[in-house]
Amino acid sequence: MSPPRLQARRLATGGRIDRAAPLRFTFDGRSYDGYAGDTLASALLANGVSLVARSFKYHRPRGILSAGSEEPNALVELRTGARREPNTKATTAELFDGLEARSQNRWPSLAFDAMAINDVLAPVFVAGFYYKTFMWPAALWEKLYEPLIRRAAGLGRAADGDDPDRYEKATAFCDVLVIGGGAAGLMAALAAGRAGARVILADESFELGGRLLSDRRTIGQDPGDHWCRQAVAELASLPDVRLMPRTTVFGAYDGGTFAAVERVADHVAVPPPHAPRQRLWRVIARQAIVAAGATERPIVFGNNDRPGVMLAGAVRTYLNRFAVQPGTRAVVFTNNDDAVATMTDLIDAGVAVAAVVDARPQPPTHIAALAARLGIRMVSGVLTDADGGLGVKRARIRPHDGTAFDLPCDLIAVSGGWNPNVQMTTHLNGKPAWNETLAAFVPGRLPRGMHVAGAAGGDFALSACLAGGARAGVAAAVAAGFAAGASDLPEVDAETVSVTPLWHVADSRHKAFVDLQNDVAVSDIALAHREGFSAVEHLKRYTTLGMATDQGRTANVNGLAILAELTGRTIPQTGITTARPPFTPVALGALAGHHRGRAFKPERRPPSYAWAKENGAEFIEAGLWLRPSHFPRAGERDWLETVCREVNGVRSGVGVCDVSSLGKIDVQGPGALDLLERVYANGIASLKLGRARYGIMLREDGFVLDDGTVARLGPRHYFVTTTTANAAKVYQHLLFAAQWLWPDLDVTITSQTEQWAQYAIAGPRSRDLLARIADPDQDISDATFPYMAAGEIAICGGLSARLYRLSFSGERAYEIGVPARFGDALMRRLMAAGREFEVTAYGTEALGVMRIEKGHVGGAELNGTTTPGDLGLAGMLSQKKDYIGRVLGQRPGLTDPGRPRLIGLRPLDPTARLRAGAHFVPNGAAAVAANDQGYMTSVAFSPSLGHWIGLGLLSRGPERLGEIVRAVDPVRGGDTAVEVVSPIFIDRQGVRLRG
Amino acid sequence: MAEAHAPLAPAPAFTTLGRLSTPGLSIAPVDDLTIIGVTSFRQTAAETAARLRATVGIAPPDRPQRRSSGPLALQWAGPAQWWLMANGADASSRARDLRHRLDGLAAVVDQSDARAVVHVAGPHARDVLAKGAPVDLHPRAFAIGDVAITQAAHIGVTIALLDHKPTFEITLFRSYADSFAGFLLEAAGEYL
Question: Under an 8 A CB cutoff, do B37 and A750 touch?
Answer without folding.
Answer: yes
